[in-house]
Amino acid sequence: MLTIKQLEAFYWVARLGTVDRAANKLHITQSAATKRLQELDAIVVEPVFESRRNKSKLSAKGQELFALCKDLLESVAHLEELQSSTRSVARILQIGMTELVATTWFPRFVGKMKDIYPNVLVQPELVHLSVELRAKVLEGSLDMAFIPDAEMPKALTRVELNSVPFAWFCAPGIFPADTPVTLQQLSESAVIEQDERSIITQLCRRLFSEAGVEPRRLFGGSSVLAMAGLIEAGIGISCLPESIVSNYVSTGRLQMVRTRPPAPSLRYCAIFMNNPQSRIGYSVAEIARQCSASA
To answer: Which of 67, 84, 101 is the last residue of a domain?
Structure first.
């Protein structure tokens, strides 16, 4: 008879494409995942994958079993909720985030998670680029990520969080404090950017392009605080989240620049895979939404 553990191993190998990714998702060793697959193969008799080496393509029998697995695992997850409520389900939740989230509302989120889900251990992972966080959720190495909103694959569920205001910053005295500055004037200073795959970098480049301006660009790394240090040193200007560098402004180390048009803002969202365990994903995303709203 097939067991839930064997079916889970098959489901996640089929979903993620490799035994290694499935093992990471299930928090088991690769050898344990392989053993469960071998046991399932022996019971089903017909091959569930097109090839023993290639786990990315299901056979006709595998496609049939995958559809049944999805429904069955959803039912099992629902039964577990009815039996003891998701609040008492013991599990590890691997959550990825950007520096902005980690330095603003994430501590409040962890505290609320401990109150509501005391048996859920939150394991954070800091990754500076949202494209990399999205890839980690898709490959199963992260259960959830808090990232700037963007177009998402159908395999992912997204829940809107807060909108994050950005502003341009310079060393004190470079631009007028009370008079709006145009992008042409702003471009007289070097623009310190993050990675070109960063959403805020792309938005700022679009603003300059639409204004017909091509500023001198400098790569400032991935850390917002490191970029703030470069700005303070007079190396250039940059578009940063207001909440992270507010202390720099209040202590006179940086100056916020009023611009016309204004700096862009970013809407953040929580993303997680559409899978049989996604019920808790919606609950956790709602906690994140509440915490981010008060950031």
So the answer is: 84
* pLDDT range class, residue 84, cuts 50, 70, 90: very low
CA distance 112 to 31: 36
Which one, of 129, 96, 99, lies nearest residue 244 by Cα? Answer: 99
Based on the domain organization, do 90 and 222 belong to the same domain? no
Model pTM score:
0.74
Q: Are residues 205 and 244 in the same domain?
A: yes
Domain that holds residue 210: 164-266
Are the CB atoms for 237 and 192 separated by under 8 Å? yes
Reported as type and span, the H/E element at residue 121 is strand 120-126
pLDDT tens digit sequence for 173-214: 999 888 999 999 999 999 999 999 899 999 999 999 999 999
The CATH number of the domain where 279 resides is what? 3.40.190.10
